[in-house]
Design brief:
Two copies of one chain form a homodimer. Chain A is of the alpha/beta class. Chain A folds into two domains: about 1-155, Rossmann fold (3-Layer(aba) Sandwich); about 155-290, Rossmann fold. Chain A is built from eight helices and 15 strands. The radius of gyration of chain A is 20 Å and the shape is globular.
Chain lengths: ~300, ~300
Amino acid sequence: MKSQGRGGRGNAVVLGGPAGSNLDGGIARELGAELVRVHLRNFPDGECLVKIPQSIRGRDAVIVQSTYFPQDTHIMQLLFLADTASRMGARSITAVVPYLAYMRQNKSFADGEAASISALLKVLYASGVDSLLTVEPHRSDALFAFKGSKLILNPIDRLMDPVSKNIRRPFVLAPDKGSLERARVAATVLNCDYTYIDKERNPVTGEVSMRDAASGNFEDKEIVVVDDMISTGGTIALASRFAYSHGAADVSVAAVHLLMCNSAYNRIRHAGVSRIYGTNTIPYENAVMVDLSKEISELLEWR
Amino acid sequence: MKSQGRGGRGNAVVLGGPAGSNLDGGIARELGAELVRVHLRNFPDGECLVKIPQSIRGRDAVIVQSTYFPQDTHIMQLLFLADTASRMGARSITAVVPYLAYMRQNKSFADGEAASISALLKVLYASGVDSLLTVEPHRSDALFAFKGSKLILNPIDRLMDPVSKNIRRPFVLAPDKGSLERARVAATVLNCDYTYIDKERNPVTGEVSMRDAASGNFEDKEIVVVDDMISTGGTIALASRFAYSHGAADVSVAAVHLLMCNSAYNRIRHAGVSRIYGTNTIPYENAVMVDLSKEISELLEWR
């Protein structure tokens, strides 16, 4: 924290945003900082109004606000909060955005398509955010367009803590090549083998076929499918069926961000997944949840 | 248009946003400019992706995107579009935002409350918007925080066109002092008297009592309640009942922005309002609608 050089952590204030409640308390506690929960009013027409209910002049503000669904409303609340903290005379503004929406739209995939994450990072900076911390942002270069200082937490190792307690014969499976590095980290913590599924999309039919890319014997193994997020759960369900068809004894899934949209839970369960592990970047009830308050706070302190 | 000095209007391109469909075609026609409708994809998790489907390099882009409900999503789409148009090499970017959300949050009402419209205007500019046109922005200083050039259309006079055809013994009523200037303009066009209702809110009970502030005899008159917007319709319903209780023969309402939230239509009808007049800044079906394409285009051309 900037505050360390100029009077210690006592100068920092954690501002808990409307979508920050699952992490703001823990972060304030870990930092030894005051917690101020932001007030929110919702109007009949759909507009909201945020309020920081006390002076923060001269203090290092840490806004905690995730941007899960409804993403656009949570983003606007974050922009309003950063602007307000800036106008109220905060010395610095750090935004902790545990789940960062639009991070998969990190380049222009075709001429004329929005690079949505770049546009979002641009306006976050313009609103007064000096530093941005996020968790597992899909690709390591996702924050490229942010002009301030960037902090990224990759908590796959931490996510393996409860997994290691529950599983005796682990084998880590990445559902696609993009998660191979995550699988490697997970396998190192669990001290086991890992592999990935090579997805090939038929360019004509759009159908996805899969094959085991690396060597791997799933017989009698408890497979842990590792990914950055679960959205509709389609990828996870395919991976689970793939693992069982290759002899797996059990399949569980560990993912950082549990978006869980469109009946993802049922889709995954029907594919035989016995347990879901996740983190509290997004609130969710049907999973074993890992609290990231400590890891986020350490990252804030160590910069 | 900047284009006039460098090759005529043919250089302009109107980009119809996902919430611009009721005005983009008319504006393109009036400007004699090409219309390009933006493509929109919606993902299962709630994210959207906009795409400008053809090159706009070197052209003067006019993005038409209103920001009615869901406001925050329509705002994000506008930010994404401005950023994309900028990256695609547009020579200038004008945003036509017929209804501008958050315009009533135009100052910090109390310590720590967000000045939401200022924050929004800041990020619009940061996204690449050079010029901003909006319609009837609640207060004349609402666009103060926008750093680019500003264009404001006040279409109360135009809104009186269909009113004057339907009403023979008009009397204009502003539902509160804030709409007095709008009532004056309307009365001038209709060539009739006008007055306003002096709302007093009991500071203890919060109850609103009303009294006729100026002289005015409603006997046998067809009252036209004039306001900038209808949100829940509560204010309009009170004004209608007030007018009837003072002898009015008929009450209609004319408002620029028809937000019409939370059963506003029924609330107004039950209060005796016989007809609603509005403009197409927001799509709506149960009103006599005035098309503002021509007025908006003239303002764009005359700057």
